[in-house]
């Protein structure tokens, strides 16, 4: 790859400036661990088992020091399930003490009353509870039996502790898109705020994307719902491909990968975005000389991403300025060219492109997979696997025992 | 993305930024502050809980308290915000930073926006 850094224009729209990248990310996602107590069917990072090469506490502190120097004002911490790291609460305090605010995503497994009170008393921390169904039935099919109850218990604990403005984070699927109003009612009940994001075919998400991604008709409904409710709902600006329906959605309608956002994974690898854990989008590692700053500012991959798209089918489309060709990761993991339409292109070009793929094409897969290898408590039933009872004793005291 | 000098998702906590960057306006979130009256003849300064990060296009400003993020889209405006504290008034700052007369109204509007989102505060 030979990266020629294009000349940045002066003035003009901010979105055009962002295409040329920033000296430091506006915010970045930091997956602290691949370990997770759940085995969600659509996990974007194929999490489950801890990676033995995970950054140590001291290495994580060094990353925070660097983010402070670069004035990255806050990080989105995730995983895996970040709170299962024994040093999670220490790193949270360390970041806040070093002017790096933290928003973390959790399934709620560790948010008991004591932790909820601790969080409510901490400034500059924001909590996001993942829930992918407004009912246990819809949620647990994807996230696993018992996961709805766990999340709701965490919401109750946070609300009781007086925590304000925490988020309920929903990945919009074919099965829950009709529940948006119910999600709103649920979050209102706890004084929380609803955040909805797009399902990507990343990680294990690739296995269920065909089955779970919203239909064209549902995308249209979602767009109308966002136009009507968007001022009260957070989206991480992840639905910008819907802007090609006509009216731009609030927020930044641009792929920020390597330009204004990036991902640091549990072993310190830096990827262009949280949905692009693949060697193609690997820019470097925070453990290498120069650390994160050198990766962000000097990687050839990021230099390449920091130029406006000039070629490809999409630039000739009348809607290109609205959707900017959509999501890079969604295209990549469905085997579509990066300068062509998003697989969920609302003008229908994505469906055509998917249909026109070579029959022998095998879409790229990540080189990483930390999925649990054995059965997991409360395994998702979406994939047609027999449900593992939440507790072995729910079935029979002898279930699963091999008696010789 | 409409502002000439600043892009201020004024009602939006910056936590809303995730995959892509700018935040969407939000009606809820932290208790909305009363609209600050901006008087350019008074002394102002960058708010104490606000950090400013220079960027090629201008700067990012972040309020650690209300978690709002704004974008200053001109280097002159960055200079204005940074030197407010050294000048007897906002208007004096604009003059000291060489803002042309014709652009004064636009700069005053930008400062008023920043006051509204608590990025700058009155000095007493």
Q: In words, what does this structure look like?
A:
The complex is a heterodimer of chains A (about 400) and B (about 120). Chain A has a single domain (about 15-310), classed as Aldolase class I (TIM Barrel). In chain A, about 30% of the residues lie in helices and about 10% in strands. Chain A is built from 14 helices and 9 strands. In chain A, strands 6-5-4-3-2-1-7-8-9 form a 9-stranded mixed sheet. In chain A, β7 (about 265) and β8 (about 270) form a beta hairpin. In chain A, α4 (about 115-120) packs across α6 (about 145-160). Chain A is globular. The N and C termini of chain A lie far apart (about 60 Å). The model of chain A is unreliable at about 400-404 (pLDDT under 50). By secondary structure, chain B is α+β, with helices and mostly antiparallel strands. Chain B is built from 3 helices and 6 strands. In chain B, the strands form 2 sheets. Chain B has a 4-stranded antiparallel sheet with strand order 1-5-4-3, covered by helices on one side. A two-stranded antiparallel ribbon of chain B has the order 2-6. The longest helix of chain B is centred in the last third of the chain and has 13 residues, at about 105-115. The interface of A and B includes residues 22, 71, 103 and 164 of A. Chain A: Keywords: 4Fe-4S, Iron, Iron-sulfur, Lyase, Metal-binding, S-adenosyl-L-methionine. Chain A: This is Mycofactocin maturase MftC. Chain A: It comes from Geodermatophilus africanus. Chain A: GO terms for molecular function: 4 iron, 4 sulfur cluster binding; catalytic activity; metal ion binding.
